[in-house]
TrEMBL record:
Protein name (Swiss-Prot/TrEMBL): Methyltransferase
Alphabetically ordered keywords of this record: Methyltransferase, Transferase
One GO term of the biological process aspect: methylation
Molecular function as annotated in GO: methyltransferase activity
Domain of life: Bacteria
InterPro entries: SAM-dependent_MTases_sf
Amino acid sequence: MYEKTYPSKRFNITLQFLKKHISTSETILDLGVPNPFSKIMEDNGYTVINTKGEDVDKDQIALQTDNYQVFTAFEIFEHLLNPYTVLENVKADKVLISIPLRLWFSPAYRSKTDMWDRHYHEFEDWQLDWLLEKTGWKIVDRVKFTHPVKKLGFRPLLRYFTPRYYMVYAVRK
């Protein structure tokens, strides 16, 4: 599939999950600016519209367009203060969302150099499930997967066995 670089495992699993549930005839609104995975989706025949980096915690106008059938948010919700309002304002009837899971052996991620690159939410799987349920979505499929790293140590060893990512496909109830 894709090069054996840092996110290749995550990208391959995400692409397989996307292909399993979403037709290339459906337009995708991908939350976030154009990124390596939105390019992968386009390379695989999907029509992708990205948001432009607006603060969707405060302003959901970018979600109000009717030009998309699927909403995706890949590793974005953990950065938002208010994912509830985002999910309430999605106009599509299908969503694919992935999040990094909260790890008991690691503190919440917080960049020391980038004010926006930090995790406000460190979800457990049940928390994302509940968020989707409360905002009117029914989960159809889900997958968890690990994220091994090529380092030595206790935490890298735990990453071989502890699921790091959680991805869901849900439809509007």
